[in-house]
């Protein structure tokens, strides 16, 4: 009888676990389409929480109004440029096609001496230059199929950007609700972490929030400032599709790659069109502002969060983009940063983490 009773208890225990796992799996399948937006909402709420509290005090403790103002500002900074980029994508490839046709009548000068003097690659580049010099229309003709394929790709990518824009709008709405109910949400997070990790995990919420703010301000925030400066320079110089190029600049900046890959070719194009003064302005603007502003911003803000390997940020950007599309640019490096910080915390055991983990 005792064995039979233990067997029944064991079966009931297995059934309870199976039901709980089934419920968790069903809930995951339900929220899976919105998972990226929900994670992004949490990141937004945690990142702007200090600024939101300051705004609440300035607005006479009107939390709903403060949340509306804060989310509206974020929407103008993130959602509006993406919407403009979607609209400008349709004009980019016809412009490139027109430029390619206009170049057919252009005669290249002799290759510059500095190009030929480059070690290892100087001679091959010189041969390509001479080939284009002798028959530029034929070389450009080979590029037209690639331009046409790029136009088709931009249409499909524009549809993906539209979906990403909807996800961003959803994330902003959820972030606003989290801000309004911030204290309650924080207590729930603390209680959950303590339930999972015990008393030694009581400081983890603060560690995670500090890491999130460090990434959003030190990496993403700096990239937004660089992008804004880049777009301003492109607009002043009269470069077409400045928002699209600005988005490319943002991707490079978040991935810790040089932004000159965007504005330097743009300056060369302006020089080709005959506006030497504007080309010089754009080159100086890029070197003196866009390319160096992060050297002044990052030391001021990154110390508030985690000191992360650049390779981790780069992998987070690429992996996040592949996993979640547009919002993955924000989610990827932030999640990897949080995971890296928790891993370091786990390695150190019960030791108290210093501010610059």
From TrEMBL:
Topology in membrane: Multi-pass membrane protein
UniProt keyword annotations, A-Z: Cell membrane, Membrane, Transmembrane, Transmembrane helix, Transport
Record's GO cellular component terms: plasma membrane
The family this protein is said to belong to: Belongs to the autoinducer-2 exporter (AI-2E) (TC 2.A.86) family.
Xref: InterPro entries: AI-2E-like
Subcellular locations according to the entry: Cell membrane
Position of the signal peptide: none
Membrane-spanning ranges: 12-31, 37-55, 67-89, 157-180, 228-254, 266-290, 310-343
Name of the protein in question: Putative PurR-regulated permease PerM
């Amino acid at each position: 009888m005792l064995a039979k009773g233990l067997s029944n208890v064991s079966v009931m225990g297995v059934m309870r676990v199976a039901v709980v796992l089934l419920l968790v799996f069903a809930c995951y399948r339900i929220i899976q389409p919105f998972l990226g937006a929900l994670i992004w909402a949490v990141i937004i709420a945690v990142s702007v929480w200090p600024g939101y509290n300051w705004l609440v005090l300035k607005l006479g403790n009107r939390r709903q109004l403060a949340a509306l103002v804060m989310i509206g500002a974020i929407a103008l900074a993130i959602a509006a440029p993406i919407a403009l980029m979607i609209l400008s994508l349709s004009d980019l490839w016809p412009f490139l096609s027109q430029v390619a046709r206009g170049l057919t009548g252009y005669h290249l000068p002799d290759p510059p001496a500095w190009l030929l003097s480059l070690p290892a690659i100087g001679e091959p580049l010189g041969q390509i230059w001479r080939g284009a010099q002798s028959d530029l229309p034929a070389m450009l003709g080979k590029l037209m199929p690639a331009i046409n394929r790029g136009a088709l790709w931009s249409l499909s990518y524009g549809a993906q950007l539209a979906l990403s824009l909807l996800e961003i709008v959803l994330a902003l709405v959820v972030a606003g609700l989290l801000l309004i109910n911030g204290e309650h949400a924080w207590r729930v997070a603390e209680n959950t972490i303590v339930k999972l990790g015990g008393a030694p995990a009581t400081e983890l919420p603060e560690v995670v929030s500090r890491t999130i703010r460090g990434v959003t301000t030190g990496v993403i925030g700096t990239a937004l400032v660089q992008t804004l400066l880049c777009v301003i320079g492109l607009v002043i110089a009269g470069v077409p599709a400045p928002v699209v190029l600005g988005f490319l600049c943002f991707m490079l900046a978040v991935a810790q790659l040089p932004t000159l890959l965007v504005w330097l070719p743009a300056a060369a194009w302006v020089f080709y069109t005959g506006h030497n003064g504007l080309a010089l302005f754009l080159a100086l603007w890029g070197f003196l502002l866009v390319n160096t502003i992060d050297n002044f911003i990052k030391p001021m803000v990154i110390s508030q969060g985690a000191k992360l390997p650049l390779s981790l940020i780069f992998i987070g950007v690429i992996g996040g983009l592949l996993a979640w599309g547009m919002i993955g640019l924000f989610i990827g490096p932030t999640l990897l940063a949080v995971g890296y910080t928790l891993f370091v915390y786990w390695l150190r055991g019960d030791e108290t983490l210093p501010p610059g983990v």
